[in-house]
Amino acid sequence: MCMSLAAQVISAALDRESKQQPDLPQSNGSEDPMHVVYIDTEGSFMPQRFREVLATKFPTQFSMQNTQNQGLDRLIVHKLGDFDELMGCLKSIDEECAEKNVGLLIIDSIALPIRQQFHQKSQLPERATMLAHVSALLKSLSKLFQIPIVVTNQVTTV
Description:
Structural class: alpha/beta
Distance between the termini: 25 Å
Radius of gyration: 17 Å
Strand order of the largest sheet: 2-1-3-4
Helix content: 40-55%
Oligomer: single chain
Shape: globular
Largest sheet: 4 strands, parallel
Order of helices and strands: HEHHEHEHHE
Number of strands: 4
Strand content: 5-15%
Number of helices: 6
């Protein structure tokens, strides 16, 4: 789902940019091409799989390896291992959003790093507090840069 959404945003951006005059700024006022930030907390993002998604969903636009690479170049992937890395990334991502003309931010998935950090039942209130903190941070990023943010949550049983 997340890769398909990223591919759709990148495809639409490339299509829109190809129809504009090269010396005109993009729709958000930036002259830089639009990018998608993909935060992978579970180690499941694979560049080859993203190329396949591009080629399958948008065959006329991404049928060749070089066009797939152009699509992949628009994707900024952060592979994070734990909650501290997630928080560090989110706190510093505003610079990247401004510099790279980010049009979508995806977190796939929010649950793992928080569950690892706060894994005991006695830490459930802390977990809820951290989720609220992350949500507030994401909301402010969305408002500041006027971008959608998609967050997935992998549900598990205890």
